[in-house]
Design a protein that fits this description.
By secondary structure, the protein is an alpha/beta fold. The protein contains 19 helices and nine strands. Helix content is about 50%, strand content about 10%.
Length: about 525
Amino acid sequence: MEKGYLCIVLHGHLPFVRHPEHEDFLEEKWLYEAITETYIPLLNVFEQLIKDKVDFRITMGLSPSLISMLLDPLLQNRYVRHIEKLIELASREVERTRWQPEFNRLALMYLSKFNLARYIFVDKYNRNIVEGFKRVQDAGKLEIMTCGATHGFFPLMEVCKSAVRAQVRTAVDQYRRVFNCQPKGIWLPECGYNPGDDEILRENGLRYFFTDTHGVLHGTPRPKYGVFAPVYCKSGVACFGRDLESSKQVWSAKQGYPGDENYREFYRDIGFDLDFDYIRPYIHSDGIRTNTGIKYYRITGETDNKQVYNNDKAQEIAAIHASNFMFNREKQAEYVAGIIKRKPIIVSPYDAELFGHWWYEGPDWINYLLRKIAFDQKTIKTINPSEYLEKYPKNQVITPSLSSWGWKGYSEFWLEGSNDWVYRHLHKASERMSELVKLYPNAKALTLRALNQGLRELLLGQSSDWAFIMKTGTHTSYALERTKGHLLNFTKLYYQIREHNIDEGWLRSIEEKNNIFPDIDYRFHS
């Protein structure tokens, strides 16, 4: 009989990036890389586990903006073009390295991986891998959560609660359309919780959410079981807190598993290493060197003299790390169960893109871990949040504290010198959106289209990714352009609607470009 439960949570999200006006847009590669390196490998792991009759549970968030991109025909077609170019490049690499056995083995590995990705994406799922995740959920192994519609940071929307409602309502509406069921839980964007927002979750039928550790531990009153049991908010929505120990073992590049010297080095890619004329057809069309995903070196250590990557050795280490993680969770569950006198839940959440993209061996680590938990011990079992709530429906009622999983645990990362200017404009746009909803409660025809597009532009401008990028200093000009562009689009729509002078041609152009949430209802912002 198990002593406790492990809840692995993967948060899948990318900002909505879609530029039909450009044939080759640099930031669109974020999606293509994630499909190849994270989402297809994870889906393949889940499907193989089911095929091998391995009993497992895993929880995964697929953000509405990510789902929108994965379902978009333009981006689907561009991904096929992207993966076919990688197959061509890998084939050339097999030929180029034919007299270098260590590199040639890796080139063959990448060629096989890219061919598999194309097969799964095109042939198996007809370009719709969301359907693949839906099948795993329907099989009872995966619990898919929703997220804020465009990953807006809820604690900084406090001055206009209608903005939070619009983020949640739009997300839940999309989830129902895509998965044909009601979402059970939500990943709050950036794990950002603001007391009272749980009432909005309850209004939309959501049963649970997650906070960082201090969101629960600093709650009022203090939680009796710490983060090893969910708590209920006064709304009746459950809150699960992150376990620091298990999280750090995985996400920390210096103290966690991903930093092992035998794992693949992310920052050495042939897109930067090889001769420009050779690699030019496979990088950006403007000649900007970019990652290709073909990387031949291992981390090695704090040195520029990187050693050649050995995938067999890396797989061996991934299996060892999976065993170590399982052992630590067994001992943790035994210890905690002895104190709290109930079977604890150990919540281990991570960004999904860590697995496969940043940590190349991450999907294999998950594969080994879930198999080992199923067959090599009896102390812990994997579980999803809704299943734990069914086993333990009675839990302490507290008010979690304002929190996030960002730097210092609150809102500083999204509200500081580089990005604080955006909020007065976002708040003003939210106020105007609420005004329009009241003025036009039953809009039709062109006005309806303009109002719906206004909400799309507002939601896209609210994405926490733009403030995050401004803070980190990477792709800053793009984040500024996106924030200002959506705010300007919204403001222009606002005045055109108020003045009954809507430019249908311009409206059509931004509808075609920023086409997220085709079934959106502007009245969600109320």
